[in-house]
Every structure is written in C-alpha cells, then in structure tokens.
Specification:
GMP Synthetase, Chain A, domain 3, 3-stranded antiparallel beta sheet, about 40% helix
Length: about 240
C-alpha cells in the first residue's frame, strides 16, 4: 500500500510541522517528517519575497507507544485462535487441578468459574479470605496463574492461554495503577525528571502505557529483563524543528 504524504508550508519548519499536525489531527511521534529542499535558484525579485519552508509529513501506521503497548498485550487477537478441542481438554485439566487444590483451603468457602472465548481461558476464584491466594501486589496470584497455564497445556498440542483473577483483584489493581500513572506523570511534568517505577508483570506495564498513551507531555517505555522489567515515565522530547 502506497504511503500517504502531505506537504505543508510555514515561515519556519516548526511552523509548517505544527500546521500539518493540527490539520491531520496527529502527534509528532505519529508521523515521519522530511524537509523539502528547493533546487531552483531564486531570481532577484523572488529574493524580496518571504521564503516559505516546505515539509512533508508521512503518517506512520501507529505511534511507537501504541506499538509497544500492543507488543506487551497478553493475547494477540489477530493470531493463535484456540481450537474447541484444545479448549475443552484444557478446561478439564484446570477443573481437575482446582478441585484438589481448593480442598487445601477447607476452612474457607471458595469456588471457581471457568469461561472462555476463542483466544483465552479465564478463571475466576471467589470466596472469603482470598488474600493469601493473591499475595503482596498479586505475586501469589501471578505464580498461581503460571501454574494453571502449565496445567492447562498438559497433553494439549496447541498453546493455551490462561488468565486468572481472584475476588476481582485485577480490576482493583488496574484502578490503583491508573491513579499511580496520573500522579507520577504530574510529578514528571512539574520537575522535568524521569521516574522509574518498580518492576511489574507485563499486564500491569500495559495498564501504565495505555493510561498515558494520549498524554502529549510525557512518554513511557519499558526497560530491563523479565521478571525485573520496569516502566520509565519521562517528558516528551521537544521537536528539533
């Protein structure tokens, strides 16, 4: 598919770029910028006329931040559709494991629910006193999700993706992380200093990226290696033009 290109003029390159971004309703990071050089020599009379700078703006398919957020998504929905046979076998594995596992908590009233679509299996554990299953900032929950993922994939030929939630913890955690992102972004804007958050699992980093994706004053990026990968929040760099 041919790239769409747009040409804008201004007294300076910065003015031309700003004019183009406003008209296209895009951000600086969403376009590729090229300064158009004029090869024609100017006549004596044209020298007296104000010179206009021309820039060419080529919209990218998606911003780098949106691309990173997409790369960190749990499930890539354009690929890896699970078969009905694989899903049913995985659900049997999960149910068998949970029936035995939850018996270890005989003093608590715990129950589970398994649902699915063609992309992933979702497990919800509900009941009283589930904090021990969640752990500090969801560490135990994440470990249990990894175990359930291994259980689900036992004797299954395809890749089965599993998401676990306990007593609505992930929704609550999402709100906490969004509030954190808002608070830290304000600090970064006020002080001009970057802030590095503590290590987070991929789905939590995605929440931070998504929350600040439309903030034109700050940007986010993930650095480090798993399981110590972190999110950095810093000011957007000013345009050189």
């Amino acid at each position: 598919m041919e790239e769409k290109k747009y040409i804008f003029e201004g007294k300076t390159s910065s003015e031309a770029i700003d004019k183009g971004l406003k008209e296209l309703n895009l951000k600086k990071e969403d376009v590729e910028v090229k300064i158009i050089k004029e090869d024609q020599k100017r006549s004596f009379f044209s020298i007296l006329e104000p010179r206009l700078i021309k820039v060419e703006l080529i919209p990218k398919e998606r911003s780098e931040k949106a691309q990173e957020s997409k790369n960190e998504t749990f499930i890539k929905k354009e690929k890896n559709i699970m078969s009905e046979k694989g899903i049913e076998e995985a659900k049997k594995n999960i149910s068998k494991f949970l029936e035995q596992f939850l018996k270890c908590f005989s003093n608590e009233k715990l129950e589970y629910k398994i649902t699915n679509d063609e992309y992933y299996i979702t497990i919800e554990i509900l009941g009283e006193n589930t904090n021990n299953l969640i752990g500090y900032r969801g560490e135990t929950l994440n470990a249990l999700q990894n175990i359930l993922s291994s259980v689900a994939n036992k004797n299954v030929e395809e890749k089965i993706r599993v998401i676990l939630d306990i007593s609505g913890y992930k929704d609550k955690r999402k709100k906490v992380l969004e509030e954190l992102a808002d608070k830290v972004s304000k600090t970064v804007i006020k002080t001009g200093r970057r802030v590095t958050l503590e290590p987070m699992p991929a789905y939590e980093r995605k929440i931070i990226h998504a929350r600040l994706q439309n903030n034109n004053k700050v940007k986010t990026q993930s650095v480090g290696e798993e399981p110590h990968r972190k999110v950095i929040i810093e000011l957007q760099r000013k345009s050189k033009y």
